[in-house]
Amino acid sequence: MTKPTPSYLTGFGNEFATEAVAGALPQGRNSPQRAPFDLYPELISGTAFTAPRAANRRTWLYRRQPSVVSGGYQGYTQPFWRTGAAGGVPTPPEPLRWSPFAIPDAPADFVDGMRTVVANGDPEAQTGVAVHVYLANRSMLRRAFVNADGEMLLVPQHGRLHITTELGVMDVKPGDVALVPRGMAFKVELPDGPSRGYVCENYGAFFRLPELGPIGSNGLANARDFCTPVAAFEDSPGNYELIKKYGGTLWTAPMRQSPFNVVAWHGNLVPFKYDTANFMTIGSISHDHPDPSIFTVLTSPSDTPGTANCDFVIFPPRWMVAEDTFRPPWYHRNLMSEFMGLVYGQYDAKPEGFKPGGASLHNCMVPHGPDEEAYEKASTAPLAPHKLDNTLAIMFESRYRFIPTEFAMTGGALDTRYAECWQGLQDQFKGT
Ligand SMILES: O=C(O)Cc1cc(O)ccc1O
Ligand SMILES: [Fe+2]
């Protein structure tokens, strides 16, 4: 079977309409007595029917078989995919860091290769997120995955992903991010072989663009740079396996047909990808290091204004020009909890110890900041304009403490010497 070549519609939160076969979308109504070509209309609502318009997301699918046609579900064993705060172990009150997570040789696809590093909240309460790494070396072929617990934000770090969703296909490379809405079936193929990346599974309110306030009507991630696939369906008969994550448990069911059988759709609950190279980065052009919120790509708000369930933040290539300023992050501690990953390059606060494919965790009120090397360099360097280039760090920031999993603490990647990176910072008070 030839794979459909990805083709995209652009914009964030748009009302899109797309058909893989001309004439497949009903006109002027959503569920005619018989839809064109005898397709089945099906509605997927990502928000309550009564959510305010600006926060309402739903899509109408016109498909060859409704999703309800499947065999019975049985439990599926994947002990490394943990859910919510309850899926973790006691959280040490200190900074944690992980070396790059190794991709095992044992066969594992995107689902079986998922390893939860930290999680918080509870999908039953629609709060919190989990952060996983996928360590995969097999494509999903006749196997699809649906997550009823949350949407999935994918951040590939090593290897491209070919993602087939019910709404169409996307090619995603390191430097891009991709999102699949809660409840939407998808599968992941690995054109480059063994692959690794970060995943934020968001049990809370869907990720959206942040307000821009005084920044104005342009900047940060611009809506036009988000790409949503056009309608595409798999035209190959035969069985499929559907893995479903539901309330923290994985289930498997046989299907008589590919779930990727949507011929046309219209709506605003959609998968998308975004190339972080398009992020319009704002920084200080006078003095002082700004708060990292200026680097927010997407935010999942909580019920408390300004206190996110999760902010997705990037530290992309950018110019440093601030005068009379210590340019890397300051020493700090924070109500919000910070989980970081590195896609490529070096992070200015930790030039050596923080590696691509690794991670760090600075939880609520855990002090952290530049390591000794970063402090020495940044406090003495001439403050000429300087390009931080070839770098992409990411951060998931949450109001809820991130609880590490057993895999995180005992799986072999934990950097037990992390605290040493600050031990050389001396009392250099010159006042007496
Ligand atoms: O701790 C970190 O490295 C992340 C971070 C970066 C920054 O520029 C300001 C605050 C902050 O928490
Ligand atoms: Fe921080």
TrEMBL record:
InterPro entries: HgmA_C, HgmA_N, Homogentis_dOase, RmlC-like_jellyroll, RmlC_Cupin_sf. Residues 8-275 form the Homogentisate 1,2-dioxygenase N-terminal domain. SUPFAM superfamilies: RmlC-like cupins. It holds the Pfam family HgmA_C. It is an enzyme of class 1 (oxidoreductase). Its EC number is 1.13.11.5. It comes from the Bacteria. Keywords: Dioxygenase, Iron, Metal-binding, Oxidoreductase. Its cofactor is Fe cation. One of its GO terms (molecular function) is homogentisate 1,2-dioxygenase activity. Residues 278-429 form the Homogentisate 1,2-dioxygenase C-terminal domain. Belongs to the homogentisate dioxygenase family. This is Homogentisate 1,2-dioxygenase. It comes from Caldimonas mangrovi. The lineage of its organism: Bacteria, Pseudomonadati, Pseudomonadota, Betaproteobacteria, Burkholderiales.
